[in-house]
Amino acid sequence: MEIPVEFKKKFTGLLGEEEAGRLFSALMEPSKKAYRVNTLKDRTKVIYTLDNLVSGIPSAYYGEISGKDPEWVSGSVYSQDPAAMFPAHLTAVQPGDKVLDLCAAPGGKSTALAEKLEGEGLLVANEISPSRAKILRENLERWGVGNALVTSASPDKLSPVFPEFFDEILVDAPCSGEGMFRKSEDAVKYWSQENVELCAARQKEILTEAVKMLKPGGQLVYSTCTFSPEEDEEIVSWLMDQGFTVNPVNLTGVPHADGRPDWGNGDESLVNCARFWPQDGLGEGQFAASLTKPGTASDVAADDQFPVRKKKVKAKDRKKGRGASPERPSKEEVGYIEAALAGFAWPKAINFGRDLLKSNDHVFWPAIDPSAVAGVKILNNGLELGMLKKKRFEPSHQLAEWLGQVAQDKVVDLDEAGYERYLHGESVQVESALSGFVLVACRGMVFSFGKLAKGQLKNYYPKGLRQ
After folding, report:
1. Where is this region: Disordered (predicted)?
2. Among the options 175, 199, 225, 273, which is catalytic?
């Protein structure tokens, strides 16, 4: 890697020759790989070595995982840079909270936030890029998350829908990517001071909308994967000018550097920010700060103010069945659903007659009233149970991953050869007394549905995920 001359000059001036030299040397070293183990699922099934802990992050370990292993396919592990684990870790999320991950793809931070919620409350995971939002949805689905609303919208489209609504908001903002130099040639190639300044302006635009969605007294975690003060301490200083206070963070024993007041507005509370340098040996580069919005939660009754807006449907679309408001399944349809899903253990009780909605024959358990988010592009609202066909019901892949959180009896556990064939999309012959829809696992880790008849396991693994 050829580090840009302008970058070297800038950080030599900021850090001094000795520390800057350590940074430049570290950027020439291989990047560190790590993964998190999903606490929503049974971690005892994971056979990866769990002895090289990432300091400060529960259930996180150094090492490399394969996207073909049952651990990944079942959503039992997630590959993530160690330093990138800390923004979600620094949030104060508790079960039952309303949480927004505003710049969420590919989903590492969203999956960590979902773990903190433990299936309670609401996670809104947003990504403006449609292609990246699809990856975000797939990762949350694999993780077994059933209480997330996955959206693809610009922040200014979300803020009128969620005024002062969230208890915590995480903004891992798009940045100049200096902390990605070891992993991305493009980050090096396109670095410039001009781009740093453009990113800082964009970060302010994003945060301007984010703070509108945060309750008074709520927590904002702001993070970047870059080192430049313009995108870090200066942005936090800008938030302080709006009344935000910087919270102390507990990173005892974690290799990091405190924020630099002299790189911002000079306020001593900037030392409460955290910067993770490559030379400190934790992982790649990261900056994170926890802030509190002025006011108290009692200043606004967010639930009462949450707008419920009915989306108008054009006549031509109504005739074709498009754009209609979701409705409850009929009694007959509920019967098909219950018959197909009989015998499975549920992580959380669902009232099939009243809790479920259907839209274009897709049956789902909403994380939020669909009419409340009309006009926002939704990729997933809560838990999709499956699809109604002619006098029958087919369960979804998301439901299989969600059911994988708890012990199940209706499971076919494939050996390694059968597992590989199933991932390819093949049907598999098995010895089992079961029939009908069953969960499919390998080494006890559930990753799909299948349909069993006379020992023949019909493949229901999604075509887009087959390997």
Report:
1. 297-331
2. 225
